[in-house]
């Protein structure tokens, strides 16, 4: 029989009565207010977005409601006091039940992680957060709560005396049933729930902002050892183009221990950033001119905060990168070669999930930069490893293998190991002192008959710039020069693994006489160092002409002039007269490349038609230019066609392109199309030496009309076998496939025209001659013949594609190049390298770079390939090399330019590039029309740059936009002032004044200051080699109701301002230290926020997009940057109003 209810306590139905329901509603409100209070008590920079907060707290709320209503239901089913039974249930739920729920969460978490169900891991909702993940986690949590409640019910089935004792203890002292109900339904649950909710939510929040991190030995770091910065470890891999999630983080958010065998890593020398370079190793093996090179760097982040670790190396131009791996705390990323569109599709898919990054590849002097950047937590070990292959070309009678050594810091272990294996025999090996006298005697060379070993292993003490310095003296190129023995004039045949390589470099031949025309660009853009160095080089080159040579000079700008209208013999008198002529050249005017080249071909054709050329002589044109045509024929394809038709098959054209902004692709096309080659000459102090070195490579023609012949039934897929000329000191290489199944010997026959005879040179080789040698040498590359054949074939097809006359032929060649690239695992312009982790859910992308002024592939933002660019005299940074823009986690360098830059454009947006930290920081200035803002004020160099604001025609959205309508430049030391507005450009020198209009292209040169105007586009100001500025013109359509014409300004950070420079831009000549951390979602997914520490200030910044208008003045190109609010307050010195000046040429007042 059921027991009767006690006289004390609340009655049956009290829990669900009107008063009970009111108390429950009040409990829910109070508990919710507790969670809201906690949210708003959190530091603003650490708050989770509302969506994440709701997901986190809702699981707790749903579980609590389920337990609450279950307890009410169970309490009302009994004959006992329901208040006492509810309270007993609640106490058991808050103690034993919480332990059961904790155990349940642990078991379920282990199970879902084991099954790799990432969206079911508690607290992980994906990026962006997915509702499906929340629903799945809620469902699992409810199962756990239901199991917990079942077990609690079983506990309540223990003997009734226990419950009776508890009832007496808990509620016997409360005589009033309503008061008992208040205690049971409101006071106790509120206190317990508030504490539990607060604690559990803090733990969840802690999980979001602080992951388990390991120190260098793999042990867990204590909370006290962590800095505030190290608590935020999201976006762990981050490159110049895009952010990239950490490769060191596993599915459960923890970091794996490193599995690499590093050994003891103590005693590392660290810079201020606390990054230690444990090892820097280069291994290169050259097998019959094929160099396989590996660069490996092992680094450690010993700071107490996450840091960017940069792997930035240079590889020779023309080399094919075939592998890149990265190991971050034991998580390995490996590479594969994919067709470009497929790679970009996979990359885009990963990017949409926040799992993608880019690797920057850009062009340098004779090298190509390969750069990636990784943001890693404290204690992380990371290893980079890059592999590339190249064919070592013979130039000036030697093979030169160049390895770039720029580790950037002292390495505990540094090693360069080069092995040479040459079956022909090694004639000599030489390692010039290219790294400087500091490393005399450190390099060791061991040379055998057919093998050599070069080793460079400086100790840490030897690497130091000085005995007490912490910086490294290793900064340059490690160069190995060698040559091989030659026994046969017919060349050396090497046959192995189904391929043959034919090396042809005959010696001891008399040089052929040459007929050479030098065509020199003397337009305004050649002014200054370029022209000075060109004149110096030409004087040296003219002195090296042989008596049997004939020559002439053509110089051109918008007009074409000839020193002599016909070829003359290179007698001492004629050479001296030519030197005097070039000494009088003064650059000015435009560029008429088409007419200059046609004049040169006319002179050569006329001389040939008149019988003035020796039948055995070699005729060539050497073009020296630094820019695109601006006068006469402007269409590059038409110029190429005109030159091709005029030269026919008689002469060779060699092109020297001076400067970074030259259209090197065009010069390369017309040179290749006319049996010549092109060379980029960088406009610096070494211009003269570079030009003379190039000339020396083509100055001694030994043979012409060279033809290689092989038995057709035995060989196939032979590379180029017919050559126009052979120059002394070089080498011709031919490769192909050979069927050795029924062949014992391979024969070649080479025919050529020499100075005094027609030559026929035969070579015979046993097809198995190399087998024994290759098997014995453990370092020799057994695939060297295949790789050399592929290298030559791909390069040949790329050259053929550049000159293909039809689109159909170009498509067929492209298809062949793509297949070759995939088959042989090399990156070409039509393939990309994907670097993926083992689970293939985190991806990096590397493309092959192109000419700095052009995009490379579909989907990039490059200039139109055949569109003329009239940027004469514009410095390199003014022409943008575009790369894909990706909206990814933190961006540390501008995505649209290989040369980063400070800029102010639009209304007005400031973008400051910080070279050391490689970040773009941006801010807006909102001031009134008519105000003049100081951008640069440098009393030491006497330079001022000010900008005057103009307003829009009327307000838009209750705001009057302002823009720069006028810029003033004052060069005090020269006494020159330049005023640029939207109508005119004015140069003032005391009482002297000259004015140019935006409607015409033109140049002004005065006191070593060059002003170049590109019609309706931009103005470039160059002050010697020290400074340059570009002002961009924005036109709006006539009678626009709101907008007005305005200007933007672009200033490279390389400008040589003094450390005392001030101004909104000038102050960043001395770059401040900037730390950005605690990255978190913002109000919108595409605009995350972070905390920035700079100049002693802690700022909240937002990542967003600004515009670079250099390539597209209408829509601009997106540039990612961290935006500082409140007119740059905290980032700039003082207040923006401190930078207002009274006049257009005023210096900023000293503080």
From TrEMBL:
Kindly give the PROSITE patterns that the UniProt entry links to this protein: VIT (PS51468), VWFA (PS50234)
Could you say which residues form the signal peptide? Answer: none
InterPro entries attached here?
ITI_HC_C (IPR010600), ITIH (IPR050934), STIMATE/YPL162C (IPR022127), VIT (IPR013694), VWF_A (IPR002035), vWFA_dom_sf (IPR036465)
Which GO cellular component terms, listed alphabetically, does the Swiss-Prot or TrEMBL entry include? extracellular region
Outline the extent of the VIT domain. 261-390
Give the source's domain of life in one word: Eukaryota
Q: Name one GO biological process term.
A: hyaluronan metabolic process
Which compartments does it reside in? Secreted
Residues passing through the membrane, by range: 15-37, 86-105, 140-161, 181-204
Q: What is its main location?
A: secreted
Kindly indicate whether the keyword Cytoplasm belongs to this entry.
no
Give the Pfam families listed for this entry: ITI_HC_C, STIMATE, VIT, VWA
- Residues covered by the VWFA domain: 515-698
Family designation:
Belongs to the ITIH family.
Name used for this protein in its record? Inter-alpha-trypsin inhibitor heavy chain 2
Organism expressing this protein natively: Meleagris gallopavo (Wild turkey)
């Amino acid at each position: 029989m059921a027991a009767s209810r006690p006289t004390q306590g609340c009655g049956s139905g009290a829990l669900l009565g009107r008063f009970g329901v009111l108390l429950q509603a009040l409990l829910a409100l109070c508990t919710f207010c507790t969670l809201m209070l906690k949210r708003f008590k959190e530091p603003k920079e650490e708050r989770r977005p509302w969506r994440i907060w709701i997901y986190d707290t809702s699981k707790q709320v749903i579980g609590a409601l389920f337990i609450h209503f279950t307890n009410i239901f169970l309490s009302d089913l009994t004959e006992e006091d329901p208040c006492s039974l509810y309270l007993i249930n609640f106490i058991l739920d808050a103690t034993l039940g919480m332990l059961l729920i904790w155990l349940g969460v642990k078991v379920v978490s282990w199970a879902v992680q084991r099954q790799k169900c990432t969206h079911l891991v508690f607290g992980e909702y994906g990026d962006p957060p997915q509702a499906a993940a929340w629903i799945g986690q809620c469902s699992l949590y409810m199962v756990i709560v239901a199991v917990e409640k079942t077990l609690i019910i079983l506990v309540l089935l223990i003997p009734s005396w226990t419950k009776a004792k508890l009832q007496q203890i808990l509620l016997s002292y409360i005589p009033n049933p309503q008061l008992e109900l208040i205690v049971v339904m409101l006071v106790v649950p509120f206190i317990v729930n508030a504490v539990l909710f607060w604690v559990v939510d803090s733990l969840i929040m802690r999980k979001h902002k602080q992951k388990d991190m390991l120190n260098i030995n793999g042990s867990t770091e204590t909370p006290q050892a962590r800095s505030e910065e190290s608590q935020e470890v999201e976006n762990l891999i981050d490159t110049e183009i895009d952010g990239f999630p950490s490769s060191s983080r596993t599915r459960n958010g923890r970091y794996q221990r490193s599995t690499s065998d590093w050994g003891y890593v103590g005693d590392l020398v660290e810079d201020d950033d606390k990054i230690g370079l444990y090892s820097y190793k280069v291994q290169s093996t050259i097998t019959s001119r094929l160099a396989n090179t590996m660069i490996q760097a092992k680094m450690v982040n010993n700071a107490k905060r996450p840091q960017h670790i940069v792997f930035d190396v240079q590889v020779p131009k023309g080399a094919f990168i075939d592998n890149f791996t990265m190991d971050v705390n034991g998580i390995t990323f490996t590479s594969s070669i994919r067709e470009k569109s497929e790679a970009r599709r996979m990359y885009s898919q990963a990017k949409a999930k926040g799992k993608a990054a880019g690797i920057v590849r850009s062009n340098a002097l004779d090298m190509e930069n390969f750069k990636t950047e990784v943001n890693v937590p404290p204690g992380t070990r990371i290893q980079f490893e890059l592999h590339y292959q190249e064919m070592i070309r013979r130039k000036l009678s030697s093979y030169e293998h160049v390895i770039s050594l720029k580790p950037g810091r002292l390495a505990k272990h540094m090693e360069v190991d080069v092995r040479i294996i040459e079956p022909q025999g090694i004639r000599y090996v030489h390692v010039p002192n290219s790294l400087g006298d500091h490393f005399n005697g450190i390099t060791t060379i061991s040379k055998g008959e057919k093998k050599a070993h070069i080793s460079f292993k400086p100790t840490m003490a030897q690497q130091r710039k000085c005995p007490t310095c912490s910086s490294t003296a290793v900064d340059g190129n490690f160069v190995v020069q060698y040559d091989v023995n030659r026994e046969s004039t017919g060349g050396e045949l090497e046959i192995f693994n189904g391929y043959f390589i034919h090396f042809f470099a005959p010696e001891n031949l008399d040089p052929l006489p040459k007929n050479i025309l030098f065509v020199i660009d003397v337009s305004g853009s050649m002014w200054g160092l370029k022209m000075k160095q060109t004149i110096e080089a030409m004087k040296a080159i003219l002195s090296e002409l042989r008596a049997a040579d004939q020559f002439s000079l053509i110089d051109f700008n918008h007009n074409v002039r000839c020193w002599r209208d016909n070829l003359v013999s290179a007698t001492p008198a004629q050479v001296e007269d030519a030197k005097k002529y070039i000494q009088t050249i003064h650059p000015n005017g435009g560029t008429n490349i088409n007419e200059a080249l046609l004049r040169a071909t006319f002179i050569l054709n006329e001389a040939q038609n008149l019988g003035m050329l020796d039948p055995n002589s070699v005729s060539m044109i050497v073009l020296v230019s630094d820019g695109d045509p601006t006068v006469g024929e402007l269409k590059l394809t038409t110029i190429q066609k005109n030159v091709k038709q005029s030269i026919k098959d008689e002469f060779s054209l060699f092109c020297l392109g001076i400067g970074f902004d030259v259209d090197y692709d065009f010069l390369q096309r017309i040179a290749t199309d006319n049996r010549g080659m092109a060379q980029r000459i960088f406009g610096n102090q070494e211009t003269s030496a570079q030009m003379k070195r190039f000339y020396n490579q083509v100055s001694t023609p030994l043979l012409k009309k060279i033809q290689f012949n092989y038995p057709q039934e035995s060989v196939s897929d032979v590379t180029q076998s017919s050559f126009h000329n052979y120059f002394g000191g070089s080498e011709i290489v031919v490769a192909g496939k050979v069927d050795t199944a029924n062949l014992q010997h391979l024969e070649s026959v080479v025919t050529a025209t020499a100075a005094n005879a027609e030559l026929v040179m035969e070579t015979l080789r046993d097809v198995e001659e190399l087998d024994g040698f290759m098997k014995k040498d453990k370092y020799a590359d057994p695939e060297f013949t295949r790789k050399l054949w592929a290298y030559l074939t791909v390069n040949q097809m790329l050259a053929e594609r550049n000159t293909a006359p039809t689109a159909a032929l170009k498509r067929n060649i492209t298809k062949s190049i793509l297949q070759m690239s995939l088959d042989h695992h090399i990156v070409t312009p039509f393939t990309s390298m994907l670097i993926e982790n083992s689970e293939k859910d985190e991806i990096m992308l590397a493309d092959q770079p192109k000419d700095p002024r052009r995009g490379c592939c579909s989907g990039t933002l490059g200039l139109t390939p055949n569109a003329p660019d009239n940027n004469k005299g514009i410095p390199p940074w003014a022409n943008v090399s575009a790369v894909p823009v990706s909206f990814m986690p933190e961006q540390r360098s501008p995505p649209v330019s290989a040369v980063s830059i400070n800029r102010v454009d639009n209304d007005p947006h400031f973008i400051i590039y910080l070279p050391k930290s490689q970040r773009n920081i941006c801010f807006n200035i909102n001031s009134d029309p008519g105000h003049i803002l100081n951008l640069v004020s440098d009393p030491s160099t006497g330079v001022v740059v000010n900008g005057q604001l103009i307003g829009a025609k009327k307000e838009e959205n209750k705001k009057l936009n302002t823009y720069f309508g006028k810029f003033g430049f004052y060069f005090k030391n020269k006494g020159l002032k330049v005023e640029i507005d939207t109508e005119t450009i004015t140069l003032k020198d005391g009482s002297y004044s000259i004015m140019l209009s935006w409607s015409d292209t033109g140049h002004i040169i005065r006191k070593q200051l060059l002003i170049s105007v590109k019609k309706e586009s931009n103005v470039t100001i160059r002050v010697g080699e020290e400074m340059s500025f570009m002002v961009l013109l924005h036109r709006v359509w006539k009678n626009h109701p709101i907008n007005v014409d305005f200007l933007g300004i672009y200033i490279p950070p390389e400008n040589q301002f003094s450390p005392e420079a001030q101004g909104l831009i000038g102050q960043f000549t001395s770059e401040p230290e900037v730390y950005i951390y605690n990255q978190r979602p913002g109000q919108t997914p595409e605009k995350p926020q972070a905390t920035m520490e700079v100049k002693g200030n802690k700022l909240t910044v937002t990542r967003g997009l600004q515009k670079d208008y250099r390539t597209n003045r209408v829509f601009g190109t997106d540039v990612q940057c961290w935006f500082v609010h409140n007119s740059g307050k905290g980032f700039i010195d003082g207040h923006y109003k401190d930078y207002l000046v009274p006049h257009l040429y005023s210096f900023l007042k000293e503080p």
